[in-house]
Amino acid sequence: MATPRTIRIGGDLEVLRIGFGAMRITGPQILGWPADRENALRVLRRAVELGLNLIDTADSYGPEVSELLIAEALHPYPETLLIATKGGLLRTDSGAWPRDARPEHLREACEGSLRRLRLDRIDLYQLHAPDPDVPFEESVGELVRLRDEGKIRYVGLSNVSVEQLRRAQELVPVVSVQNRYSLADRSSEDVLDECERQDIAFLPWYPLAAGDLAQPGGGVGRAASARGATPAQVALAWLLARAPVTVPIPGTSSLRHLEENAAVLDLELTPEELAGLG
Fold first, then answer.
1. Which of 76, 69, 82, 61 is closest to 39 using CA atoms?
2. Which of 43, 61, 173, 201 could form a disulfide bond with 66, CB atoms 3.0-4.6 angstroms apart?
3. Could you tell me the pLDDT band of residue 27, with boundaries at 50, 70 and 90?
4. For 4-28, what is the mean pLDDT?
5. Beta strand spans in 60-189 (E)
6. Mean pLDDT of the 223-242 span
7. What CATH number does the domain located at 6-277 have?
8. Mind telling me the catalytic residues?
């Protein structure tokens, strides 16, 4: 059976199963403006030209820079484009990612994203990470209030456990989960399984980590050589085959890598190749 090329998020937002992660279009260490701003704009526009219609970002990327570049490159947005953003992490000058999921901060973050992205409503807004200093239900509850006010259409989560997903679902429908997951890091396997069981979109971040499998003689390297593909393409194709709810969101500032990533939708791994990847 062919791997599905699209998925519906929230039941009505249909996107290709390769998205674009907009973290890497910012400056070095995800801080400030990119050295080549025009290149960042070209990459964003090319992503849409290639048909990629899910762009994932966050207010902390830059901070603020990624969202501003998206609006500069793509506003007014195509009707089929889903821009997903996140709140709940900060980005410091030292390169740290402190968490702040206090309700008042999440409201400020969401309203700032609305302004920067030039939107009246964010179709998919995600809690970037639970904050150990804030009761989880208080953080999710603020997203519910923002949804009820019409500022958010759908709520997603990031960096959560199965237990946290279920707790959030007691307050609001959750349409997506974004956790770190790849060939080399399957620590969120149980979360992916739960998302598949419930037909919730699973957006693996850092999806191109292939570990030792990408070394010469490894499963990724062998499959890539046999197909005339890159190891990154094989790693993404494995994610697409892993479950019908996966939507990898690889990020890049390179037009060439962007085009290689988009081409993965046409790379169908055989059962033998998948078995070789474990």
1. 69
2. 61
3. very high
4. 96
5. 82-87, 122-127, 152-158, 174-178
6. 94
7. 3.20.20.100
8. 61
